[in-house]
Design a protein that fits this description.
Helix content: 25-40%
CATH topology of the largest domain: Rossmann fold
Shape: globular
CATH class of the largest domain: Alpha Beta
Number of domains: 3
Low-confidence stretches: 52-56
Strand content: 15-25%
Radius of gyration: 26 Å
CATH superfamily of the largest domain: P-loop containing nucleotide triphosphate hydrolases
Structural class: alpha/beta
Largest sheet: 9 strands, mixed
Strand order of the largest sheet: 8-7-9-10-6-11-12-13-14
CATH architecture of the largest domain: 3-Layer(aba) Sandwich
């Protein structure tokens, strides 16, 4: 009797494998994404697993016996990128950069490649989407043309690895991972099998040759990297570009970093010469024009950097039983909580008003220190009374109406003083006296209203 061939199906959305074809993936919930793997692909998976099992191991050691390995870094000649990476580019690291189309991923890496080439590093820029002429045209505009910057327009992984074996490179840039394919895998470029195989080969090359590798990844409409989630697990660093392609400011945020903190952000400004480090970001997110009702100023922390932001609120009478709540740059669930608190504690009839919140400059607030500013802006719009442009509002609001302390209050107040603010509504007095700014400590929401 002939031996029955093994069948194996793989989800093209997340890489989950099953012996039977399923309509809905039990791992990621996607429908109709299962494809049957060929016998060659199944054998390749077995070989990969066997290699991993049989790899040499040094055996378990006490952590006190492990020698400390220093991390070698070199600067990208871009202050914002160095800040997000934790101090510079790590030799032998694998970095993934994602973002929506047109946000500036290719522009940034081509600019960085030119900077590194001018500093003496040998850089290979591999493009599977554009021709060499197109890249040359952009490089001239970005002032990135240098003899140490090499271009390779290729989508075959074997050809790319062969080119890498002919010359020693310090940095490798892949634009983008979804366009490459390996002849070992018969599926189409961008599929789960292809992305996994190519990322594994690039990771092995980066570690063996001690070469820093940057990978550009497309994102889905949900905002995640297109392809399997295993791609984010394999790389050392994951960075995401945020911002509207129609605006000048772009934000590079770290979501994973094995060599540094993930709380840092880089702020860039799109100019005619490409993405540049924002020299003076302090005045990008607020204005000192005449006071308007519904506007309040706060100071948030992005990593180790304090940023002064303008919070805008608009209330209008609703003609529907269920009023609308909308928020841009601020968590909608937290806005709903604050509105319920105002209705309960201050008896404000907000259930008859549509409420709209916007954070100026296109930045997204990921902390709770802006709660007091949100409440101040809402009440200012509700009463149609403008707030003082010389005052900042800092503090976290709890469900019971208390105003809680926030971390690094002194740093926030020093930044506010630098921007010539004279008053601050804070949950407690700062640890050190900061000249030039007067602090008003409030412990509950009702006292904020009394001050207003």
């Amino acid at each position: 009797m002939a031996k029955k061939k093994q069948q194996l199906y793989e989800c093209q959305a997340c890489g989950f494998q099953s012996a039977a074809e399923l309509g809905k993936c039990p791992n990621c919930g996607a429908w109709g994404e299962f494809l049957e793997l060929t016998q060659e692909q199944i054998e390749m998976l077995k070989v990969t697993a066997k290699t991993s099992v049989n790899s040499k191991s040094s055996g378990a050691k006490s952590i006190t016996e492990i020698e400390f390995e220093s991390v070698e870094r070199f600067s990208s000649n871009n202050e914002e990128l160095d800040l997000v990476l934790g101090g510079g580019i790590v030799e032998g690291s694998l970095t993934l950069i994602g973002g929506s189309p047109g946000v500036g991923k290719s522009t940034l890496l081509l600019k960085i490649g030119g900077n590194l080439a001018k500093s003496g590093k040998s850089v290979l820029y591999v493009s599977g989407e554009e021709s060499a002429g197109q890249i040359k045209l952009r490089a001239e505009r970005l002032d990135s043309s240098h003899k140490n910057l090499y271009l390779l327009c290729e989508i075959n992984l074997d050809t790319i690895l062969h080119e890498l074996s002919l010359k020693k490179f310090d940095v490798l840039i892949i634009d983008s991972i979804q366009t490459l394919y390996s002849e070992k895998i018969s599926s189409a470029p961008g599929s789960v099998s292809q992305v996994r195989e190519i990322t594994f080969e690039l990771m092995r090359y980066a570690k063996d040759k001690n070469v820093a590798v940057f990978i550009i990844g497309h994102i889905t409409k949900e905002g995640s990297i297109a392809g399997p989630r295993i791609l984010e697990h394999m790389v050392d660093t994951v960075l995401y570009f945020e911002g509207d392609s129609n605006r000048e400011l772009r934000i590079l945020r770290g979501f994973k970093n094995r060599f540094g903190s993930t709380s840092e952000v880089g702020i860039f400004e799109m100019t005619k010469t490409g993405l540049e480090s924002a020299k003076d970001i302090s005045k990008k997110f607020f204005t000192r024009n005449d006071s308007q009702a519904g506007s309040a100023i706060t100071v948030v922390m992005e990593g180790s950097r304090p940023i002064v932001l303008e919070v805008q609120a608009l209330l209008s009478e609703s003609s529907y039983p269920n009023p609308k709540r909308a928020s841009t740059g601020y968590e909608l669930n937290r806005l709903t909580m604050l509105l319920a608190l105002l209705e309960r504690k201050l008896d404000l009839p907000l259930n008859r008003y549509d409420v709209f919140i916007n954070i100026a400059g296109g930045i997204k607030i990921t902390e709770t220190a802006a709660d007091v500013a949100i409440i101040a802006a809402i009440i200012s719009s509700f009463r149609n009374r403008p707030l003082s442009k010389d005052t900042v509002f800092i503090g976290e609001v709890s469900l019971i109406g208390d105003i809680r302390d926030v971390f690094q209050l002194d740093s926030r107040l020093k930044e506010a003083r630098t921007q010539h603010f004279k008053k601050a509504i804070v949950p407690s007095r700062p640890l050190e006296e900061i000249s030039g700014i007067k602090c008003f400590a409030v412990s509950e929401v009702a006292k904020v209203i009394d001050w207003m």
